[in-house]
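Can anyone check this?
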Amino acid sequence: MCHATSVIVLALFLAFPLHAEVIDVQPSGFVSKNEALISASPEDVYRALLRVGQWWDPEHTYSGDPGEMRIDARPGGCFCERIPGKGAIEHMRVAYVSKNSTLRLFGALGPLQELGVAGSLTWSLKAEGGGTKFVQTYNVGGYRQGGFADLAPLVDQVLNTQLQRLKGYIETE
């Protein structure tokens, strides 16, 4: 394989997680699940996960700068973002921490906040094949006029993008 082809194959490998899908959609909620095999130890992946400002997509922030985002990895801790000159936003609240293994947050991301829904985002890490199997599951429930069939794939796509960015950040660091 020539060098240019190798670079393209590597870029595609880094860009796409192993599996992404909306695994269930109901009128009252949905479940999004994204998985990736990351070429790093669970310890390294966990440390990078907490540096959310280094890998989160600026298109999906309120400030336009992911460097304003922080995750305080303790029960009750905040996944928050400063909005300089305007205020701040709590994206989610940390509910469960198992260092190098699981981080679970409760809350409604982005436009879901306005809907009065609840969400549980779980990031699970497990050593596999010399790297880390990373599973991201977001369970959302509540009321939305017209249900979630049209919104669930959009949320899944955004979360998939975040996972791709995390994977790329870790593997090119």
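Reply from J.R.: I decoded it. The first strand starts at residue 19 and ends at 26.
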